[in-house]
Amino acid sequence: MPLRRTLVLTCCCVLVASGALAGKTLHVHRLSDVEATLQANGGPTRQDCQVGNLNVPTYAITDWAFGAEGYKYLFRAPATCSCPVGFRLDSIHLLMQFGPEDVPVGFDAFVDLEEAVWDDLSGCYLPGAELCTSLVYTVQIDAEGLFDISLPILEQCQCAAIGFWYFLSFHFVSEFGASGRPDLVADGMPLGCRSWNDYGFGWQDLVSDFDWPGEILMYADAACCEIPVSAEPGTWGSVKSLYR
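RESULT FIELD:
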């Protein structure tokens, strides 16, 4: 059984969430001025670079997270860093909003980095093999508000090669329950083939399949490294580029 660690997060911005829903139904709440107040809670100090979705938080997708599910975000390294050869993940972040009906709540979660494999049928990169997986952490939220939840992964990750496509993943181990379902947060740029959710029916595109107004706000802190593990042809996004 993986070692469990506990993270207690403090509120960084109070926003209103609507009531819990019975299914994955889209309800969007526009955020305002949150980028000035968001701070990372827990996790190590940011190092050489960040990868993933670094856009401005724009929408809350209300009452969306059921728990016992996973989320992924596609990225190509480097995004905003200058690592010449390779990078190693330090921690993975997911933005979540909790309303008064959602707290207090504790939940178990873990994160991972995965290969991205091109799929001709869908015209998208799809999740591939796991490259590294974190411990299982218990996150405790005691107050309503908007949170940047950071789970460390550093000790489990090898050096990954720059220039390929990867997926960041965030997994909720158990369900939240019908009485409280937190919001997830999106930017305002719905590209498609970037953000994915599996809550029991396979991986579905949050933009194309659920009409999200933007991509999920998930990103990672990383450090440069010099000897990446090899990237075989046909994996790690080396088949072709989605965005040339």
